[in-house]
Amino acid sequence: MLARIRITVYGMVQGVGFRYFTLRLAKKLKLGGYVQNKSNGNVEVVAEGEKHNLLRLVEELRIGPPGSSVDNLHLKWEDPKNDFNEFRILH
Known about the structure:
By secondary structure, this protein is α+β, with helices and mostly antiparallel strands. The protein has two helices and five strands, in the order E-H-E-E-H-E-E. The longest helix has 13 residues, at about 50-65. The mean pLDDT is about 95.
């Protein structure tokens, strides 16, 4: 089942390779979307794909890459738009 999720990641998640970690994971899970640093120190992830793969993404983001410290995730499920043909890092 196709689904879409918007995730805000809170904690020490900038300057620790979090976006590249997310990019590699999303490509492995065959998800479309993006990851970007926000000016307030959080990271935003928007991903679309099979729901079970999105749930796996959430599980892995809770842990994060070595050197990161994830305090919390805010999840917002949205209707899929099918407007991504790849997963990428936005700057």
